[in-house]
Amino acid sequence: MIAPTRLASIVAPVLASIALLAGCGGAPSPVAEPQAYAAARPEMVAPTAPALQRSYFTKDVTGALTEQDLQTVLEAPIDLQLPARIGVIPLAEPFDPKGSPSLGLRNTASHHFAKALAGNPHFSQVTDISTDLPNVGGIEGLRVIAARYRLRYLVLYSERFEDSTHLNGWAWLYPTVLGMFFAPGVTVESQGIAQADFLDVRTGTILFSVTEPLRVSKKEQMIGAARSHKEEQGKIAADGARSLAKRVHVQTNALVAFADATHGAQPRPKLLPSPVVASSPVTGAPAEISLAKP
After folding, report:
1. For the purposes of burial, counting CB atoms within 10 Å of the CB of 44, is it exposed (0-12), middle (13-18) or buried (19 or more)?
2. Highest mean pLDDT out of 7-21, 58-72, 162-176
3. Of 30, 57, 64, 237, which residue is least crowded by CB atoms under 10 Å?
4. Roughly how many angstroms between the first and final C-alpha of the chain, as a whole number?
């Protein structure tokens, strides 16, 4: 029989090893830093510039950039802070909160578009935004409005139609007078788009834009054609807003997936040969460049 002291000396190291292995297996794997990830992947490089901490655009409606600031914005990695609260703001004109959006546009943006955005795991809250707050217009005006709501991201919603209403073949009955009341001689038709732009409020940059085509085409009687056209546009816009929200989901998920896959690193640049052949420093004659394999 094995003595109790000897048994304890044998079992204790075994239990300690099991506990150590269990602890290692249960601990979460550390997130790779951009430098470590780039070192393991030769085709990737770690970012050399810090993420933007502010907007470099001028504080007016033009939002101009100097050449140096433009290069700074392009060289900086994107600081994607999701999940986050986002706001949906209806705009009469894209990127300009100065205009007064119609009640129909506001209803589409809040009831159909914003409601369809809710539920995305990257959006902790989706709130409606009012453009009635004082603002200077342009992107800077949007940033001021977002700051009042304490939001990091805005989704700008806008829609527009081009009217192509025309008379159709039934219009030949109009001279009979009765035809003006009963014949569907007017084709109410319009082409349009619904647009959503994902604005990073902190930096004043647009992370992505998506559009959804809208089309209305229906034969109507002359009396009441304008009202019917407006109603049809509202129905088509509501369906388009829901489809547009799905595209926003796809783009947002793609951004997050790309950030997770690259761990903050970026692909190495690939250079093409210059379009002009350089002159030889000795003879002054153009140097020959051959792309053919020997």
Report:
1. middle
2. 58-72
3. 30
4. 81
pLDDT in tens, 230-245: 889 899 999 999 999 9
**Rounded to 5 degrees, what are φ and ψ at 247?**
-70, -35
* Residue 26: C-alpha distances to residues 20, 30, 189 (Å): 10, 12, 62
* Parallel/antiparallel/unpaired status of strands 153-163 and 186-200: antiparallel
Looking at residue 36, its pLDDT comes to 64
Strand segments, DSSP code E, in 182-284 are: 186-200, 205-220, 266-267
From the number of C-beta atoms within 10 Å of its C-beta (0-12, 13-18, 19+), residue 35 rates as middle
| pTM greater than the 0.70 cutoff | yes
**Are the CB atoms for 171 and 183 separated by under 8 Å?**
yes
pLDDT in tens, 106-162: 999 999 999 999 989 999 999 999 988 888 889 999 999 999 999 999 999 999 999
Length of the chain: 294
Look at residues 238, 236, 248 and name the one whose alpha carbon lies nearest to residue 118.
Answer: 248
DSSP secondary structure of 73-100: HHHSPP----SEEEEEEE-SBTTBTTS-
Beta strand 153-163 pairing with 84-90? parallel
Rounded CA-CA distance 73/77 in Å is 8
**CA-to-CA distance for 52 and 50, rounded, in angstroms?**
6
Supply the pLDDT for residue 237: 94
For residue 57, with 0-12 CB atoms within 10 Å meaning exposed, 13-18 middle and 19 or more buried, which class applies? Answer: buried
- The model's confidence at residue 14, banded by pLDDT at 50, 70 and 90, is very low
CB 160 within 8 A of CB 101: no
Identify which of 147, 236, 123 has the alpha carbon closest to the alpha carbon of residue 190: 236
